[in-house]
Amino acid sequence: MIDAVDSDVELDPGPGRGRQGAARTCIVTREVKPPKKMIRFVLAPDGAVVPDLRARLPGRGAWISGTREAVELAMKRRLFRRAFRSERADAHPDTPDRIAEGLRTDLRQAIAMANKSGCVVTGFGKVEAQIGSGIGVAAVIHASDAAADGRRKIGQALRRKQGDSTYKVPIIDDLSESELDMALGRDHVIHAALVAGAGTTGCLARWRRLRAFDGVATVIADANPAQAGASASDPHDDETTDRPA
After folding, report:
1. What is the residue range of the signal peptide feature (predicted)?
2. What are residue 142's DSSP bridge partners?
3. 17: pLDDT confidence band, cut at 50, 70 and 90?
């Protein structure tokens, strides 16, 4: 359980002011973290507290660790009122769900951008061929409703490619077939892969952020069959998992 503190909290000065990328203090835990691991909140004109996922909305902002648990605790303990020094500063009850949906939208958009940059291949055969190529893949994408057989065969292709290597490939399976269709502008996308390129790093960062919010570790495929589908220790970890396998 996260414990909150009762001391006053200082808000950030707003976008375009202060030191860009500076670490922020969570109003729930008082932990100091980089912005990429947190969610910013601002006051709307009507006094309601709204999430600012891209940290671009005007006005001073309060920051919370980027997990559903932290956001729900801030709402339960009415910490926004203290942070913004306003008795009207409350978030809508469905704010955690709105954040999760916003993060899913960000991931769809990131996949779409990666596709426009030529960093996405689609279709089982093309994904399998890309895995076996000299370039390899930076991540595998499965529709959340993909059949287990297709997942298994692609996992086998990864293991054939990697041999005894311990290099781990991210497995993105958070979006449904219809969501992938929307992101990639085509029908019936079940399996896809990211290759290294301009859009890959941002795509993986948004995936990690979505996973971290709901407390789900980032799933990876390992060359060792006994470890296939293992989980990374930190969903926010930005180590070099976006290189080609």
Report:
1. none
2. 191
3. confident
Which domains, from first to last, does the chain contain? 24-92 (3.30.1230.10), 102-214 (3.30.1330.30)
pTM of the shown model? 0.83
HEC string for the chain: CCCCCCCCCCCECCCCCCCCCCCEEECCCCCEECHHHEEEEEECCCCCEEEECCCCCCCCEEEEECCHHHHHHHHHCCHHHHHHCCCCCCECCCHHHHHHHHHHHHHHHHHHHHHHCCCEEECHHHHHHHHHCCCCCCEEEECCCCCHHHHHHHHHHHHHHHCCCCCCEEEECCCCHHHHHHHHCCCCCCEEEECCCCCHHHHHHHHHHHHHHCCCCCEEECCCHHHCCCECCCCCCCCCCCCCC
Q: What would the pLDDT profile of 23-38 be if each residue is shown by its tens digit? A: 999 999 999 999 999 9
So what's the pLDDT on residue 3?
A: 47
Query: What distance in Å separates the CA atoms of residue 110 and residue 42, rounded to the nearest whole number?
Result: 24
Confirm if 180 and 141 have CB atoms less than 8 A apart: yes
Q: What mean pLDDT is reported for the chain?
A: 85
